[in-house]
Structure formats: structure tokens, C-alpha cells
Amino acid sequence: MLVIDGWFDKEAWKDGYTLVQLKDFGKIKIVRTSYSWSKGITSIHQTHWIITGDGKGIKHVLDTQKQALYEKNRSLKIMESNGFMAKAIKSPLIGRYRYIGVRS
After folding, report:
1. DSSP string, 37-73
2. For the whole prediction, is pTM greater than 0.85?
3. Per-domain residue ranges for the chain?
């Protein structure tokens, strides 16, 4: 059995999506801000992490993720072409599917 929490599918992806979050863990403070866009079928999600409070000043971490945006049926066909009986169910993560594959 194979279970994949998929990335956003093509229909759910939103270019220009922004997010800002602040987490306060007592001494440690973390700010996360992100921006998303696409080029062709490639989604690009860039996140900046600002971390402070550890006595070492401010740390900045940049994380850029690039992943293909496929429609649900294409993802299922890829699994099936690799020998899986595949199905997709709605993921608890908004705008995504959970893919389940079984080989006999």
C-alpha cells in the first residue's frame, strides 16, 4: 500500500497567495511569511523564517519549494502506470488530495 498526501492540484493552486504567522514559544519567537506563484506547471512556494530569542540574535532562513501542479486524474494515471490500483480521496489539507495505491 502506498499513501501520498499530494501537493496542491492544478485547480486549487492560487498564484499570489500570501501568509504571515507568528509563533511565541516563550523566549523563542518565530515569524513565517510566504508567497506563492507558478511558472507553467511548476508551483513555487517561498517561505521566509525569522527566528529570535535564543541569545544569538536574529536568524533568517529562506525555503523555496518547487513542485509540479498536476490534475487529479494525471496523478492517478502516473500511479496506475507504475502498477498500482489507485484512488484519490479529499485530504484534510485544504486544496489537496490523498492518493492511495495498492499493488496485488
Report:
1. EEETTEEEEEEEEEEE-SSS-EEEEEEEEEEE---HH
2. no
3. 2-102
CB of 50 closer than 8 Å to CB of 70: no
Q: What is the pLDDT of residues 57-104, one digit of tens each?
A: 999 999 999 998 888 899 899 999 999 999 999 888 877 889 999 997
Which of 49, 55, 101, 56 is CA-nearest to residue 79?
Answer: 101
* 13-45 pLDDT tens trace: 889 999 999 999 999 999 999 999 999 999 999
pLDDT in tens, 48-68: 999 999 788 999 999 999 998
Contact 61, 45 (CB under 8 A): no
Fold of 2-102: S-adenosyl-L-methionine-dependent methyltransferases (2.20.130)
The three three-digit cell numbers of residue 30, written as one number: 518565530
